[in-house]
Amino acid sequence: MKKGLLLLVFPFLLSSCFGNVADDELANQQQYKPLVLERSVFEKSIILENAKPVKKSGKIYIKGDLMFVNDVNKGFHVYDYSNPKNPILLNFIKAPGATDLAIVDDIIYINQAVDLVAVSYDSATKKITVTSRSINVFPQKKSPTGEFGSVVGNQIIIDWDLIE
Length: 164
Description:
It contains three helices and eleven strands. By secondary structure, the protein is an alpha+beta fold. The strands form three sheets. It has a five-stranded antiparallel beta sheet, with no helix packed on it. A four-stranded antiparallel beta sheet has the order 7-8-9-10, with no helix packed on it. A two-stranded antiparallel sheet has the order 1-11.
């Protein structure tokens, strides 16, 4: 009886070792194309915009009465967080290619694709100023499948689009 049960169960155990072949094949079939900006455009792309809905949220950072929510590869939503039970959306910091930030004193450090950018933000006057930019600190963004894209000249990959 035990031997018969083992013969029935063994193929199922063995198949789980190989994962779902259909899912693996689908992942390998998906192809992505890089979304790029020329460096001259990229370096002028951090701007303050009106508030807008979050599309793909990423990391959250709270500093004092402000909360920053990353919209992956798009920028940061800025909230008045003085009442945590009722955060109020103030602005959107457009920063194509950005996925993270850190704040030291009143300077916001943004990883914007390949660059590390320091900005000052004043919620009262609704102004943002780029104070410094260290170029090519980070490698180009990889595709969701882990591939590096090829770029021409001074192009910067800010995101990846699925090729349908």
